[in-house]
Design a protein that fits this description.
This protein is an alpha+beta fold. The protein folds into two domains: about 160 residues, no CATH class; about 120 residues, ntegrin, alpha v. Chain A, domain 4 (Immunoglobulin-like). The protein is about 50% helix and about 30% strand. It has five helices and ten strands, in the order αααααββββββββββ. β9 and β10 form a beta hairpin. It is elongated and about 100 Å long. It starts with a helix and ends with a strand.
Length: about 280
């Protein structure tokens, strides 16, 4: 056999052994994300299904067949993506499949190196053939290994965090009050994210034209530079679990004139830091 072919087959055999070790080591990393990604994938699929059912209900009323088919295709595509991601991080996807390719590549390399003993020195093309097979197999295994590493990198970057949404009672974002009317305003703080919210502080800035009664919250003058002529209403919550809504009642007296105000809301949370929201209150006759 030509010496260069033999040396190449020997090098491929060494690579196969090294890459099998890397595949096994990769699973040690992917396994740490597998449980979390499985849980999050189930949650994401359930949420996607709920959104899809709501969207399909709206589209059926308008008889938009093309839009219905598009929504179903997108939902199937997202579900397949989540399922493939879990499979890639699993033992079968991360270790078994690439290792099988590397083992077969190693076998081809060994057989190719000993092709003269099997078929004689007159049939050197067998060695070249096994070299090609070994190269293709190791290439396929290496690509699969890169896919696993990419899935690990994606899982590491997509850290589950809480997502806070603020609204008034009945999921409205705009409230109408009559002039000089005293009402109990219910403010809802909902966690729609993928992790529970911790050490939550909510600050609402009401213009001084609104009178805020005492309640289970703190009242103080807002920062004049950022929110001039505003009363700050503050309340806290140590923990808001996923898909849980925390609500607080605020006693509000509307001003004696028609107006529309956007109420700035600042929320501080341990993982996400500061986020800003707005609700609207309109004073009518």
């Amino acid at each position: 056999m030509v010496e260069s072919v033999f040396q190449t087959l020997l090098l491929l055999a060494y690579f196969d052994i090294a890459l099998i070790s890397i595949a096994i080591a990769n699973f040690a990393v992917s396994a740490s994300f597998l449980g979390r990604e499985s849980r999050l994938s189930r949650t994401r699929m359930e949420k996607r299904k709920e959104r899809l059912l709501g969207k399909l209900k709206e589209l059926r009323e308008t008889n938009q067949i093309a839009s219905i088919k598009k929504e179903i295709r997108e939902a199937d595509k997202e579900q397949n993506r989540l399922s493939n991601n879990i499979f890639t991080l699993s033992w079968l996807g991360a270790v078994v499949i690439p290792s099988i390719l590397f083992v077969w590549s190693f076998i081809c390399a060994v057989v190719g190196m000993n092709s003269e003993a099997f078929w004689g020195s007159q049939n050197q093309e067998f060695g070249v053939g096994f070299l090609v097979c070994s190269t293709i197999l190791i290439g396929g295994g290496f690509i699969d290994l890169l896919i696993v590493i990419r899935a690990i990198d994606s899982a590491a970057k997509k850290v589950p965090i809480p997502e806070i949404r603020v609204y008034f009672a009945n999921h409205v974002r705009e409230l109408k009050l009559k002039r000089k009317e005293t009402v109990v305003v219910t403010v809802c703080v909902s966690n729609i994210g993928e992790d529970f919210a911790e050490d939550v502080q909510i600050f609402m800035m009401f213009p001084d034209t609104f009178k805020i009664g005492n309640g289970e919250y703190n009242l103080m003058q807002a920062d004049f530079n950022k929110y001039p002529n505003c009363t700050q209403v503050e309340f806290r919550r140590d923990l808001i679990h996923i898909e849980v809504t925390y609500w607080k009642v605020i006693y509000v007296t509307a001003p004696d004139r028609k107006c529309t105000h956007e109420i700035p809301i600042i929320i501080n949370e341990r993982k996400t830091g500061e986020t800003k929201h707005k609700l609207t209150i309109e004073v009518i006759d």
